[in-house]
Structure formats: C-alpha cells, structure tokens
Write a structure and sequence with these properties.
mainly alpha, Serine Threonine Protein Phosphatase 5, Tetratricopeptide repeat, 11 helices, 78% helix, extended
C-alpha cells in the first residue's frame, strides 16, 4: 500500500511540470491561441471604433435633427413637433432613425408629452414607457405624465402608482409635492380611499411645507379627515 507524502521537493516540481504542459499545449494549439488573442484585442478596439466613428456622429446628427422639433414643442405646436414639416424632422422620425441613441430616447419623452397634450393618451403611454433617464426632474415628469395619461383613460390604479413613483423615486421640492397631490386626489376622487389620500396630503405638509402645494394642503387634509369621520 502506497503512502502519499508531502515532500517539499515534489511540491516544488509540480508547478514546473504544469508550466511545461501549458507550454506544450500552446505550441500544439498555436493557431487557436493566436485567434483567441486577436479576438480579445479586436473586441474592445472594435467597440472603440464603433463608438467614435459611428455612434458619436449619429448621436450628434440626432441632436441636430431635434433642434427644430424642440422649437415647435416650446411653442406648443405639438403636431409639428411630432411630425415635422417639409424641411425638418419631427420627434417620430427621429425615434425611427436614431432609436438607439440618447437623443432618440429623449425624443420618446417629447413625443409622449406631445401626445398627452393632444389628448392621444394611448400613444402618450407607449412613448413614455419607452423612455428612461437618470435625470431627476425629467424622469419624475415622465412618470407623472404617465399618471395623467392613465387617469384620462380611466385606469386610476395605474395612475396613482405612477404619481407615487414620480413623487417618491427622486424626492425633490419641485415635482414631488405636485405628484403627491395628484396621487391624493386620485385616491380621494376616483378610488374612494380617503386614508391613502390623507397620507399623501400629510406627507406634503410635513416634507414640502414651503411648496405651493404645501401652503394650501391644510384644506385638503381637513376635508379628507371630515370625510373619514362621516
């Protein structure tokens, strides 16, 4: 019966044996190794080239194309902002042609707001749900606009969910009290949940007392408490 030992000499020889095996394998598979190295180097270089020579110019083109659509939007000419005219592209064309760019993503936001203003609520929802952003105010407004569109379509549950998302995901003194109030009014008027409405109103009173909504919220709180005691 053999006995395994922990001879330090044997231990020292094992890595050498492994290294020799690896060297032999590399020689036997030189072509495969060379291809693998080329792939490892080519992938990041290829992406850098794609980003510099294709993606960045396309991004710049998209933002340039959006300039006039944004002007129409600021003038509240929402139909022209969406569809463009004989000379300039609208947001819908920009989405189709530059959908993979940041500008194309932003065009979805603009298109969603345009459709909301035009009373085309399903189209508004489609575009707003395709939009995403790390910008605190824009993402809050987008979620709140989704709430408005769903409420107009009679889906108050989804409306209030989006209002609360708009208010709470990125708390701020500007949009949060606006959407908390909308959530409260939806709970109160549409869903007959005065306790939920009261929670929204009291959050405005506590966290955003200096906002316009905060300065008038006491009457909503009083009304809702009276409703709950009837």
């Amino acid at each position: 019966m053999s006995k395994k030992t922990n001879d330090p000499i044997d231990t020292m020889l094992e890595p050498k044996k492994t290294a020799a095996d690896i060297e032999k394998w590399i020689k036997d598979n030189a072509k495969t190794v060379a291809i693998a190295l080329v792939v490892v180097i080519a992938i990041p270089l290829g992406y850098m080239g794609y980003k510099k020579f294709i993606l960045e110019p396309k991004e710049n083109e998209a933002y340039a194309a959006m300039f006039y659509a944004e002007q129409y939007f600021n003038q509240e000419n929402f139909t022209l902002a969406l569809n463009g005219d004989s000379e300039f592209s609208g947001f819908l064309t920009i989405i189709d042609e530059y959908g993979g760019t940041k500008a194309g993503n932003l065009a979805n936001y603009y298109a969603g707001i345009c459709y909301l203003k035009l009373g085309q609520f399903e189209d508004a929802i489609n575009h707003l749900e395709d939009f995403s952003s790390d910008d605190i105010l824009v993402s809050s407004v987008a979620a709140g606009a989704l709430g408005d569109a769903y409420r107009e379509l009679g889906d108050s549950e989804k409306a209030v969910k989006n209002y609360e998302k708009a208010a709470n995901k990125y708390p701020n003194n500007f949009t949060s009290p606006i959407f908390l109030k909308k959530a409260g009014m939806t709970y109160e008027d549409d869903l007959a949940k005065p306790d939920k409405a009261l929670a929204c109103y009291e959050k405005i009173e506590k966290q955003y007392p200096m906002s316009r909504e905060g300065q008038e919220i006491i009457k909503y709180i009083s009304r809702t408490k009276a409703m709950m005691t009837e």
